[in-house]
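General statements about sequence and structure are easier to judge against a single worked case. For one protein, we set the task of working out the structure tokens from the amino acid sequence alone. The sequence in question and its structure tokens are set out directly beneath this paragraph.
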Amino acid sequence: MNDIQFTLNGKTVTYAGSAADRLLDVLRDTFRCTSVKCGCKEGECGACSVLLDGKLINSCCAAMGAVEGSTIVTLEGYRETERFAALDKAFAEVSAVQCGFCIPGMVLAAESILSANPHPTEEDVRVGMSGNLCRCTGYNAIVNAIMNAAKEGNGMVNGYAPKTLAEALELRSQHDLVPYAGGTDLMVENRPNVSYLFLGKLAELKGISEDAEFVRIGAAVTYTEALASPIVPQLMKEAISRIAAPAIRNAGTFGGNLGNGSAKADSVLIEFVTGAKLRLLSVRGQRVVDVEKFYLGRKKLDLANDEIIAEILLPKAGIGDYYYKKVGGRNALAISRVSFAGILSVDNGVITQFSAGFGAVADTVLRYRELETMLIGKTVAEAKAAKADVLKAYSEKLVLTRGRVSAEYRKTVCMNLLADFLTEKGI
């Protein structure tokens, strides 16, 4: 085997010895990581514990050939982190350190526990520490130190990263957590004192599929992934292709765009105009709601504290003949000043579908179904004759808020876009 390369405490290192050499011995003798203690050499005491790719292992039971390309952290590297400072303080406060031989492994085991679960029970801590023996019988003090660090925050990451959807729903039901899929809005808000439920890597929320009625888009699907899908409707692609720039589209998700509760959300405008539905999940079961009923106002959603957005159901029928415009300061601007989408379908000279939505102009996306009936069922000729009345009705209905630009400017733009939409569609 060639020289073995891996990352040790943040630095790339190379080991030229035998692939069968014990990791414990190499860390101590070659790289002088003397915090890694040689206790039993049988995986029983935990004194040689290190983090291998974020997971706690006994270095006495690992051969060097198995760490090629991996990342290893020992106490020498870990003590430079904020988390170590927090645990160090907690251990000192309850006198959890005695002879010190076992403590490096204990601290790394504590990191393993708290990184997976920032709010463990005492039983969780005792199970997580069960592979680490204390020669001075200081277990209770050590458990108390870890529990105190978890209880007070002490620089620990506030959040959970569930491995399955079922685990995510259970956590959501038990804790006050903010669902986090892409984080592109949450990080702008910068709320350091909240705890997050990280959903972006759950396979159950990453799918794009279709049935006879809907294209179904998982809440953790990113805009980039949707743009690459052959079954995502072109109208949706048109809108999400205008969301900021690639760096945002690579991270931003459909569930996050909805969960932000903003009328400026680009994908939400399309969901309003197409009459999309949302599938919401909790430990109690599922609900399917119309997106228009899901939005109750600015930052107000029909989402229970134990629910998560699981899937967006986009209707497939009648959305091919569309019109979409986004007005912003520049092409890659993340936040639009005004956005508009419309759908108008004609069958045998009769308008069978007409919908229009306005985004970024009020507390929620605006769609007036009662005004849409003014054109549905009319012939194209009849619709042309009614066009002025339709525009007048919309003008009276549109009561807009001031944003980065005046309400008057926004209304003028909205009416111009609506008129242009109707004209482009032959009305």
The chain has four domains: 4-77, 81-152, 204-315, 322-424. The first strand starts at residue 4 and ends at 8. Residues 81-152 form a domain with the DNA polymerase; domain 1 fold (CATH 1.10.150.120). The chain has a mean pLDDT of 90.
